[in-house]
Amino acid sequence: MSDSRDWQGDAVDVAIVGAGAAGVGAARRLQALRPDLSILVLEAGARVGGRAWTVRPPLVEGSPIDLGCGWLHGARTNVWKAIAEEIGFTVDKTPAPWSEGGQNLEATMPGGQEARAAIGAFFAHAEQRRGEKPDPALSDLLEPDNPWNDRVEAIGTFLNGSPLDQASLEDYNNYHPGPGPDWRIREGYGALVTAYSQPVPVALGTIVTQIDHRTADHIAVETNRGTIRARAVVVSVSTNVLANEGIRFDPPLPEKLEAAASLPLGLANKLFLHTGTTDGLPVDAHLIGSLHRSATGSYQLRPFGKPVIEAYFGGPLAHELEKAGQAAALSFAREELASHFGHIIAGELEVAAMSAWAATPHIGGSYSYARPGASPQRSILAAPVDNRLFFAGEACSPSRFSTAHGAYETGAAAAEKIATSIAGGVGRS
Ligand SMILES: Cc1cc2nc3c(=O)[nH]c(=O)nc-3n(C[C@H](O)[C@H](O)[C@H](O)COP(=O)(O)OP(=O)(O)OC[C@H]3O[C@@H](n4cnc5c(N)ncnc54)[C@H](O)[C@@H]3O)c2cc1C
Known about the structure:
- It is globular and about 65 Å long.
- The longest helix is centred in the last third of the chain and has 22 residues, at 326-347.
- 31% of the residues lie in helices and 20% in strands.
- Strands 1, 2, 3, 10, 11, 12, 13, 14 and 22 form a nine-stranded mixed beta sheet that branches. Strands 8-17-18-19-16-20 form a six-stranded mixed beta sheet.
- With 429 residues, it is an alpha/beta fold.
- It has helices at 21-33, 79-86, 112-128, 149-160, 169-174, 189-196, 239-243, 254-262, 315-324, 326-347, 377-382, 404-421, and strands at 2-3, 11-17, 39-42, 54-55, 65-66, 71-72, 91-92, 103-104, 183-185, 201-203, 208-212, 219-223, 226-235, 248-250, 265-266, 268-274, 285-288, 298-301, 308-314, 350-354, 367-368, 389-391.
- The protein binds flavin-adenine dinucleotide.
């Protein structure tokens, strides 16, 4: 990645707004298909990656930790797996705790088998009700008085980042991350997206405020650092940025605003805890804080064998703990872990890193979910305007929304359309 700070006053063939997985995917695909076109990625933040973000906290001796995406879902066909292999990153194929061969300690907890059966039955029921009109909220599928409803609700907060009563059944049934298990990138998913962006010119700290598409021969992209003219633009920012009118369009695009508002970002946050001792803590195992509360954490024990516990909070609990801060999140996790491993291990836990995606500027949440009835809005959001203003980002994917490979695919799809719609490149002026 080069930080192109010298672009002011320039015109480019294609401006890409946002350097997340979708923006990077769009840029790389376009570079491959149309090397004659000049491209510039405009990124509001100080780094590439967006919701793909690897950090290396000193408390874990600088080893990589993903605050955002971590799992290569649908790994066999996940484009980031192929990219990782191409650029020399390590794909770790340890079975995910929830897949066959993985270590899910929930089954060994008292009531754990019943809880798993109830979760299985809930999602089988969701599948049976595929196609139901009007599209119900997932909460409509809960059986009154089922003792495991809180456990199912907790799963909903991890999947959607929102309570079940906010989320669409149709969208749940449309989700297909692709075949294959869930694998990981040893060096970090965020580090992979950043490494892949190396050949792409990116202007960091460049906040797009308005996109003026009134004129036929160019689009004017207004930023905090001046205006840039482009023949085509790809907008790959999150739905919360669009819905909050972080970028204004002239003429306005009310259908995009409506689509973005009906596909809001849910919230999931990660808290990485350094463990003083690893005694009694299995490697790459998974545990749920409580089987009986919806406001509970999901805990990945010693990922990659590190002296770390990765806590995952979703929905209302994630909002509450993000607002309350690291000390409150640590205390919550400590209490839940103490009930499994005793106060000795829990007492030794220290915060190595914590995400705060709701408050992260220019992102504002974790991944999109559809409100009941809103799943078709994903295609409305993704539809190009006048074949020169394109939309990408995880929320635009009809079936791989909320993933980093889905985001990439929407960026690549926009690039493919641009490649066939723009005549010979003008280069940078
Ligand atoms: C906690 C968590 C766990 C997750 N786990 C997984 C997982 O295991 N596997 C998986 O596949 N996915 C996972 N995801 C989801 C995945 O990270 C996202 O779906 C994906 O990274 C989104 O990429 P994107 O390019 O669509 O959007 P973003 O990453 O949000 O990129 C958009 C970019 O646009 C920039 N931007 C915004 N506004 C402006 C503006 N006005 N001007 C210029 N730039 C702007 C932003 O700064 C950002 O960099 C997880 C996400 C979170 C938060």
